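Quick question, first post here. What does this chain look like in 3D?
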Amino acid sequence: MRFEVTELPEEGRSTEAVLEDLAAAKSDDRDWRGGRVFSLVYSAGDEVHELHAKALGLYSAENGLNVLAFPSIGRLSHDLVGWTSALLGGDETGATGYLTSGGTESLLQAVKVARDAGRARGIERPKVIAARSAHAAFTKAAELFDVDLVRVGVDDGFRVDLAEVAAAIDDSTIMLVGSAPTYPHGVIDPITELGSLALAHDLLLHVDSCLGGLLLPWLVEAGHVSTPYDLRVPGVTSISADLHKYGYASKGVSVVLYNDAALARHQLFVTTDWMGGFYASTVMAGTRPAGPVAAAWATMQHLGRSGYRRLAEETWAAARRLIDGVSAIDGLRVLGDPDMTVLAIAADDGGTLDVFAVADRLAELGGWYLDRQTDPDALHLTVHAGSAAAVDPFLVDLAAVVSTIGDERSANRSAPYATDR
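> Answer (accepted):
Ran it through. Tokens below.
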């Protein structure tokens, strides 16, 4: 049954009928619960999702704007920021921070703070330098906040090119950007070296760890990752981390942290310039849902450190199986050397395999969903605990699809494989 709404009904409908239509509306959605969606959803299992639903329900009406009316939201938010800060070195540096609605808003806030810090130094139109691999939200932020964003290249391993960063710095530069890891290829930029550049030129340095911030601490603890990336790196002034990614919280909750309280104050908005009295907010939105805050708090309490360690180890092992399995398939390669559990699959150097056609066939064959990237064309996969069990069947289907497309090309080399992109 397809779900169509033409107009608001004159009379209200029953709860059962409305819920039936909502269930029907999801019929064309990807089934992420089977682990076949290597993007968008991060799953720690049905028990955690059931916990999300109950916590969201408890706070479905409360307004996160006003913690005077709803002080519990302030306490929950304080806990989430504090726990995240401790994981990312903020307890050692005296960091302060705020919750946002997700990674995009955290990056928007970081750029807005940098703009205001630049203007305080007399720079009317500050410049931010980021790699081409840095998240698209930096481009959005530059447009919104009248900031010049300079995109620089990456090296052969898809990490930011430090020489290009250094060459781009001038008197209007206010902030450098590093990723831990980059979304496209799952590699960690050289944060230590970026920190040295930032210190040498008296610049801010934001680390976008929205993707990895709640997973990397456990991988570091286990000895799988050794690259410094967080607030303890000299020169890093701020960092962002999404709780709804590898923190396995309900969407959408992210944290942005600042090593300098004076810098953090640039994020606050306060005014009495209207007839409604004092108005203040710490993020872009005014009214905002309290449910995701409660669900994130419940998730972190439920999993605890031991739960996160277990999930991190399962995810790491699954990602290594996936990387090794892809590398063993003729015609494919993993781009770069992923530091974490995110990777991009492309055709072999010099190969003619259309990886977007591969994605089409995988969707038809087994309902697999993979994001698509360009320059070079590649398929993006984020491995999480919920996708771990799907890695082995995915590799079987991937090998079969690549072989089939290769056979078709061998039989008719003059006819390129067509795909709807």
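Residues 410-421 have pLDDT under 50 and may be disordered.
Residues 27 and 203 are 50 Å apart (CA to CA).
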